[in-house]
Write a structure and sequence with these properties.
With 193 residues, this protein is an alpha+beta fold. It is found in: Cytoplasm.
Length: 193
């Protein structure tokens, strides 16, 4: 596994890097996952140490966690690792089933992603005909091809509120999202009749 361990305005020493490699290796070995690469970023916010970790698995799925502690930087990493461990434990059976059913990694397609300006006054000043958003940034994003169950699992593992994916069954674009009531919503435009 490739490790990228860095700090934002924090010196990450060799001892911490060794600790991170050892602990992450043990966590993923316990659940028989094959991680390909991991990114661990340490930062500081006031008196808190923060650890953001993203690990890409060989199956194409991504596991993401964040931990913070006021004690020390090691405690922040341990909280992050515990969250990741809990996510993997929760989905262990499904991750293994997912791997057996899928002979190749998750396929990703390319899609355009835009960031729009937040100020509606700027939109209106650009065009007298109505709201015309200003594109602040344009980039490429990856859209995975998954089943609905796998998309929900990926959304939970990545710790995101919404996931856009291509449905394995029919190839259409679908969305799963975390609702305000705590449940998961699924949007499938093909089911509109």
């Amino acid at each position: 596994m490739r490790y990228q361990i860095s700090g934002k305005q924090i010196d990450v020493g060799e001892a911490l890097q060794t600790h991170v490699r050892t602990e992450l290796g043990e966590t993923f070995e316990k659940y028989a996952q094959r991680p390909t690469d991991s990114t661990v970023i340490f930062s500081r916010d006031a008196h808190y140490f923060i650890c953001d970790t993203v690990v890409h698995l060989a199956t194409g799925l991504t596991v993401q966690a964040k931990g913070q502690a006021s004690d020390n930087i090691y405690a922040a990493f341990e909280k992050c690792r515990e969250k990741m461990d809990k996510q993997l434990r929760r989905y262990k059976r499904r991750l293994k089933d997912h791997h057996k059913d899928r002979t190749s990694p998750v396929e990703y397609g390319a899609a355009s992603s835009y960031v729009l300006a937040a100020d509606e006054d700027e939109w209106e000043s650009q065009d007298d005909a109505g709201l015309q958003p200003i594109i602040v940034a344009e980039m490429e994003t990856r859209v995975p091809t998954l089943s609905v169950g796998d998309a929900v699992m990926q959304m939970e593992l990545a710790g995101v509120a919404m996931l856009v994916f291509r449905n394995e069954k029919h190839g259409g674009v679908n969305v799963v999202h975390r609702r305000d009531d705590g449940n998961v919503g699924w949007i499938d435009p093909r089911n509109l009749s």
